[in-house]
Amino acid sequence: MNAIADKWKPHTVKNCVLCGAGLLGLWLASSVSYAAEPLRLGVLKFGTVNWELSVIKDRKLDEKYGFELEVVPLAAKNATHVAIQGGAVDMIVSDWIWVSRQRSNQRDYTFAPYSTAAGSVMVHPNSGIETLDDLKDKRIGVAGGPVDKSWLLLSAYTRKILGEPVETMTQPSFAAPPLINELMASGEFPSALNYWHYSARLKALGMVELIKVSDLLETLGIEKEIPLIGWVFHTSWAQENPDVIRGFLAASREAQKIMLNDDSVWDFLRPLLKAEDDVIAEFLRDSFREGIIECFDESYGRAIAAAFDIISEIGGRKLVGDSSALAEGTIWPASFDRNCS
User: Fold this and answer.
1) Which CATH number fits domain 37-116+226-335: 3.40.190.10, 2.40.30.170, 3.40.50.150, 3.40.50.2000?
2) pLDDT of the residue at 34
3) What is the pTM of this model?
4) What distance in Å separates the CA atoms of residue 240 and residue 244, rounded to the nearest whole number?
């Protein structure tokens, strides 16, 4: 009996060790969480899109929706285009004009809407300007250059309403957005067309909003307040990473809902706003909220195509390249909400 026990004892010990090792391996495997799929998003270092991305990270919405958001700060708009073209990032913020132009050159970028926020024509309260007709022969500061979307829409509007494009009836000065605001505040510019967050700052300083870019659209036959900017990525990348793109867009929608309804989140965001006082912070918050898209269906796609036709007619090949119309596939099909009421 003892001989039998001695014969099997080493094997029993060995088996127990192996058994324990196996259980330990199973425990370690179960305790290790698999890394979420990364999404590298290239954005301007001080751009307003960082407000939303900060909410996504702070509320762990990327974890909730199964991806890991990696924000890649970049110095300029052109740098974002270079980054996505070179494969350094998976996604950027840009506009449907750029996407359509790329698609006409056989590059498979696509666009999902982010915001309808747009600038305004602002005038100095002492300028005597009460209507667009009063802009005649006056200086106007313009952000974005002569082929900026908002400037081209304003040109189409004044041509239709006043019979003359804004670029010939005024004295445009194209400059950086902060400089435009400085010259408006000093009175050197009696009027300005600036980006939405700079227009919000001008409102807080007592400047008068003459007309919003979004208000131009209806007169031009565009019935929707369209998004001018959005998330841009390769169609092929989205098809290869369906869970990541679906999760990111869901996280974006939830973050915007929080920013729309929860005032406390703006206390958290206050350092990013770079607001000199509470009044400016409130204008920035309210202007951001105005741009939130609560529903986006196929009718918005048709409105974007109509806006493209207007802008391309004025901007020409310098702006849109060889595209005579919005390229097919410019808008990511999954962006459309079939449940809009």
Assistant:
1) 3.40.190.10
2) 53
3) 0.87
4) 9
